[in-house]
Amino acid sequence: MELRQLRYFVAVAEELHFGRAAERMMIVQSAVSQQVSRLERELGVALFDRTPRRVRLTEAGAAFLPAAREVLAAERRALAAVDRFVAARGTVLRIGTSRGMGERLEKVLEALARQEPGTRVELVSAMPAERLRRVAAGEWDAAFVRGVLEAPEGVRQVPVWQDELVVALPAGHPAARADTLELSALADLPLCLTGRRNNPPLVDLVERACADAGFTPVPGPAHSSLQDTLAALAAGAHGWTVVYAAAARQLRTGRIAFRPVGAAGLSLPTVMAVPASGTERLRPLLDACAEVARNDLDP
């Protein structure tokens, strides 16, 4: 029995859906299904009753769930004990990151290393709401979060910069010929975007911008990952998506066109979620973010 099997089991038990559990764990659904099936074989019982329409816990699964959670809680306590030991010897910052930060994240880490050479940084990833939860629980020191999300009690959100979004579409599409484009030119193209439950601020921003442009976007195929979406667009698939400009600058390909949107553009605020008190040790990190934001404004 492996800890990752328990993590996948708990995720499916809480979501009651293998696909949503995979999105939450940021892995492919087949990996979740495979590891849960392996765990069931090792235990000799079925943990889930699976039908084409639903997934639910069996009696054995319901009995196993509290114990699995306790094992994972013990793992977190053990990791926290090691973190406390390491922290006594030097500063370690556990920082939650967002996808598509591109060179901005590199610049923040470079600025932090200049200011605090003895600081060691551990970068960790999760869905936005999970990032906020982990900061609130004291598991992480801070986390980058885009958009306006309700923060748990004990978490303060410090604005750091605006993240511009650009449209990604096949380079051969007529709309890609312009240096900038109006969203109305994409009205007939399917929009390939993550589900709202994964990223409410992003989805709301794009749908609101489309509404302001006078159309409702055509739903694209089921979203798997940005990497897969970009690969499909590069191969000439009919559709479009949005990408953070900082990430687009690192995605060099002649098959996809990245274009800013009109005069108003598209952007989301990025904040640093930190504990509401006792944040003095995070001052160098916040200063590094401020330095990067200032450099963004330089001509």
Structure description:
The protein is α/β, with parallel strands linked by helices and 299 residues long. The protein has three domains: 3-79, Orthogonal Bundle (Arc Repressor Mutant, subunit A), CATH 1.10.10; 89-156 and 269-297, Periplasmic binding protein-like II (D-Maltodextrin-Binding Protein, domain 2, 3-Layer(aba) Sandwich), CATH 3.40.190; 162-267, Periplasmic binding protein-like II (D-Maltodextrin-Binding Protein, domain 2). The protein is built from ten helices and eleven strands. The strands form three sheets. Strands 3, 4, 5, 6, 9, 10 and 11 form a seven-stranded mixed beta sheet that branches. A two-stranded antiparallel ribbon has the order 1-2. A two-stranded parallel sheet has the order 7-8. A hairpin with a 4-residue loop joins strand 1 (48-50) and strand 2 (55-57). Helix 1 crosses helix 2 and helix 5 packs across helix 10. The N and C termini lie far apart (56 Å).
Could you give a short description of this structure?
By secondary structure, the protein is of the alpha/beta class.
- Count of helical segments? 10
How would you describe the shape?
Answer: globular
CATH superfamily of the largest domain: Periplasmic binding protein-like II
Mean pLDDT, all residues: 88
- Based on the structure given, which CATH architecture of the largest domain is correct? 3-Layer(aba) Sandwich
Enumerate the spans where pLDDT stays under 50 for 5 or more consecutive residues: none
Number of domains: 3
**Fraction in helix:** 40-55%
State the end-to-end distance.
Answer: 56 Å
The main sheet comes to: 7 strands, mixed
H/E element order: HHHEEHEHEHEEEHEHEHEEH
- CATH T-level topology of the largest domain: D-Maltodextrin-Binding Protein, domain 2
Q: Quickly give the structural class.
A: alpha/beta
β-strand amount: 15-25%
Name of the CATH first level of the largest domain: Alpha Beta
Q: Kindly state the number of beta strands.
A: 11
Radius of gyration: 22 Å
